[in-house]
Amino acid sequence: MQSSRLQKIIQENPSLVWYTNNRSGLSDSSILEHILNYGTWKQVQEAIRLLGLKDMISLYRSLADTSRSNIKPQVKRYFNLYFTNASRNFN
What is the pTM assigned to this prediction? Predict the structure, then answer.
């Protein structure tokens, strides 16, 4: 199993994934989805710090672009705008 870089956030905030006792088995994708939907701005910033902005944008886009995305529509709209603006700094 691949080690998740976002495990630290889940360990400090287990209520983000209230439905499972197997928190160590969660992928970065699953953890990020929960942070975006249910987390605080501080947790989003911690995820960016842990992943790096480029990897965070890439992971977000892979989540948001799937047909089975569980990211709430209003959250998706906000982060589409946020990461589009943030990615302009790379080009």
Answer: 0.85
